[in-house]
Amino acid sequence: MKRLELRDISKSFGALEVLAGISLHVAAGEFVSILGPSGAGKSTLFQLLTGALKGEGDMRFDGAPLDGSPFAFMPQRDALMPWRRVIDNVTLGLEVQGVSRRAAREQVAPLFAEFGLAGFERSWPAELSGGMRQRAALLRTVVQQRDMLLLDEPFGALDALTRAAMQRWLEGMWRRHRWTALLITHDVREAVYLSDRIYLMSARPARIISEIAVPLQRPRTTGSDAARQAAALEADILDTLLNPGVDRASFPQTAQRRSS
Amino acid sequence: MAFAIAKTIPAAIAFALILAAWEVYARYGGVAPTMLPAPSRVLLQAWENRAALAENTLPTIRATSAGFACSLVAAFVLSALVDFLAPLRRALFPLLIVSQTLPLVAIAPLIVLWFGFGLMPKILLVALVTFFPMMVALVEGFAATSTEISQMLAAMGAGRWRIFWLARLPSALPYFFAGLRISITYAVVGAIFAEYAGAAKGLGIYMLNAKNNFRPDLVLAAVAVSAALTLILFGIAVLVQRLAMPWENAGSDSDDRKRSGESRQ
Ligand SMILES: Nc1ncnc2c1ncn2[C@@H]1O[C@H](COP(=O)(O)OP(=O)(O)O)[C@@H](O)[C@H]1O
Ligand SMILES: [Mg+2]
């Protein structure tokens, strides 16, 4: 069943055409990634979804036109408020929904252990490591109990080792909770490791140049067979992103380029 | 804490050296005490006239705090309004900048002429000199709110007022306190200026009378009192900032630890 469905979404900033007809969908309980180069317009797409910007095109959620926000949104960079303690950052969404601070704290406190943040409830965000900040930001996102998660490059600012650890952790969390999630990333390995399906996005003006199902079994262990399969998929994706003109005749944009 | 005290030692030494040089010059340089009294004489006279000084210090404190409180409230209210209504900003800022170009020497007697010898003209003058730095700091601080945080709050369903309260106001706090520290050093001077232009009691009028009676030692004693007042207000501002922004030193502590760890190796 399709939860989110976007048809032909376009957005320009004045003369700058950023999104040029994006169509995609996300099914219930599915983890989908949008993979594209920096500056393509990925964050802009999320801003259209959360209503921060207005664009053209059809956005549907559970079959009805998108109305209000069924999304819990995790912005690029963690966006933790330095003036709130970690627990008060995590309860932010609940507070905005009208839950009292006390009740919100009671609701989120049991989740700190699962997110590897036990004992840091009363810390300031500045006292956390990069990985912990991202986990806190993710916890703040999921406790809102919305129908779908929008994650904008959650691990983009982390060092390679921490990022790999966080990807494993997130994959495990996702298997347990089966959130419906749309992830933005420019990291090919991250997209392959986490997703059920991947949309490849071109550089600006952004189009979807390919849709790729990831047939790897979960949990995404590092067994040599699975690793080979994943590596082949990653190589294929890189090829598509770096030479969009080669042997992808089924996509109109590339077909055009060829004929020119 | 010991480190914080250690940091003030150079300033204390410099201050003591200047006082010592002044003392030596005033005593042995052949200047009359009616021209340049030695610091020791200023101190002695201040002590002997302590009743009169205290009596004139209280009204100055009252005028300073009333004026500063008004200025603070006005800065918060107006900056919030400007934050919500962009056109208001374009209307107000030129006026505010012009208000900062007015020469106090000319304005102070006029305000006394219009509002009399009471508290009102002092409040107005203190507000005039302290309002601008706080107002500018607050408006800039609101604008410095991270767009990610605002967008996230909007996606959570927060309205404009909620976003202001949860994100823009706390984001502006560091800016506000920077402005406050500048403002507060003008506040006492503003009150003294107003009193100088006309008052029944106060440090400003006390200085004027002492000068007219050829008592530079008493003028300087009043100056010392006003400097002490300003320093105390500054200290209070720093203290309030510490209390209002407990997160400010979080994380930097561990940096210090890291650094000292490195230097030990
Ligand atoms: N509010 C805006 N006004 C004008 N241009 C914008 C705005 N937001 C984004 N852009 C431009 O749109 C392009 C895509 O930005 P973004 O969606 O942030 O890219 P990505 O997230 O894929 O790296 C960039 O060239 C950026 O400069
Ligand atoms: Mg982005």
From TrEMBL, chain A:
Keywords, alphabetical: ATP-binding, Nucleotide-binding, Transport
InterPro entries in the record: AAA+_ATPase, ABC_transporter-like_ATP-bd, ABC_transporter-like_CS, ABC_transporter_ATP-bind, P-loop_NTPase
GO molecular function list: ATP binding; ATP hydrolysis activity
SUPFAM superfamilies for this protein: P-loop containing nucleoside triphosphate hydrolases
Pfam families: ABC_tran
TM stretches of this protein: none
Source taxon at top rank: Bacteria
Record protein name field: ABC transporter ATP-binding protein
